[in-house]
Design brief:
The protein is α+β, with helices and mostly antiparallel strands. It is 35% helix and 24% strand. The chain contains ten helices and twelve strands. The strands form four sheets. The protein has a five-stranded antiparallel β-sheet. A three-stranded antiparallel β-sheet has the order 2-3-4, with no helix packed on it. The structure holds flavin-adenine dinucleotide (FAD). Flavin-adenine dinucleotide (FAD) binds next to helix 7 and helix 8.
């Protein structure tokens, strides 16, 4: 549970998204502009082609487009691979009243129960909601055989894998108020890096997608802040800025990717280790932690 000091703030994804978008001048984000591809045109310049066929040229291209980045191929031929584990997402509403045993098991913060290959991770969100990831280490075709379009069938099949577990834990599967959502987990190899290509770089999951360990959004935001700082420090030299940014980002993301069990959410001590690492690298004591 949160220790009440404000040192471990959690934030809902939607709230974080609103905070970030509201901080930008109107019109900065152009909605509906899906990137189809990007190519090098020489002299440090790149051309981005959108799904509607329109193009834009730029002297600084930052791929912040997540796991399946369309910008990454300009720098690296590496693609994410399935880590051998997927999670099934569930949600229990009004937990204190409707699911008191599960609510007590989860407590005021987060809870992990696991055996080799099977895991239930749950945490408390606002409005008395319990949000859970049911982790199963199985190949993708094992999940393909389950009809996730039929929520009841999928719930029963996943619950079967936890037969004999405590009912307050299996309730996090069987009592979900949403249909279970399958989320296959992919990662780039830890230590993924590339040689400098003029005018283009990556940040966040596009650069260092890893198995969820509770820190991916923190790292993505830190990358963005560090890249901005480097560009401000080298206003007339994009290459110097990108070099400085990448030299710090590569070891930071490598170390963070190796913290925590593959595919697991971070334990408290793992999170503390990442925060200590980020603090050491940035001098900043206050880091947001996301759900
Ligand atoms: C199950 C699960 C649980 C997680 N839990 C946590 C957690 O508790 N805490 C935490 O810190 N992290 C968590 N993470 C990791 C976290 O979600 C990511 O590390 C983080 O979102 C990375 O941010 P990003 O901005 O790099 O990429 P993303 O959040 O993926 O953002 C990329 C953006 O690019 C856009 N985009 C993609 N392709 C295109 C295109 N072709 N054209 C235009 N736009 C495009 C997308 O729409 C998206 O808005 C979790 C991940 C998973 C899978």
């Amino acid at each position: 549970a949160d220790e009440g000091t404000g040192g471990r703030p959690e934030v809902m994804r939607g709230d974080l998204r609103d905070i970030l978008l509201d901080s930008l001048p109107a019109g900065t984000v152009r909605w509906g502009q899906k990137v189809g591809s990007a190519r090098t045109v020489g002299g440090g310049r790149h051309e981005v082609t959108f799904a509607d066929g329109s193009t834009v040229g730029t002297s600084l291209l930052v791929g912040a487009d997540g796991a399946w980045s369309r910008v990454r191929p300009l720098l690296s031929s590496t693609t994410p691979e399935y880590i051998g584990k997927s999670v099934v997402e569930t949600c229990l509403l009004d937990a204190g009243i409707r699911h008191p045993a599960a609510a007590e098991a989860v407590g005021g913060g987060s809870m992990i129960a696991h055996t080799p290959g099977r895991e239930i991770f749950a945490h408390r969100e606002r409005a008395d909601t319990l949000h859970a990831y049911i982790g199963l280490s199985e190949p993708q075709d094992w999940f393909d055989a389950i009809d996730f379009a039929d929520g009841a069938v999928a719930t029963a099949r996943i619950a079967q894998e936890f037969d004999g577990w405590a009912p307050e834990l299996t309730a996090l599967i069987t009592d979900s108020d949403i249909a279970p959502v399958l989320r296959p987990l992919h990662a780039l190899p830890a230590g993924h890096r590339w040689d400098r290509v003029p005018g283009v770089t990556l940040l966040g999951d596009a650069a260092h997608l890893s198995a969820p360990n509770g820190e991916g959004a923190n790292l993505a935001m830190l990358d963005g802040a560090e890249l901005g700082t480097a560009l401000a420090a080298h206003p007339d030299d994009i290459e110097a800025a990108l070099t400085a940014y990448e030299q710090a980002m590569f070891p930071r993301s490598t170390e963070a990717a190796t913290i925590g069990e593959p595919g697991a959410h971070a334990t408290d001590s793992d999170s503390q280790a990442v925060r200590a690492l980020i603090t050491a690298l940035t001098g900043s004591e206050k880091q947001e932690r996301t759900q």
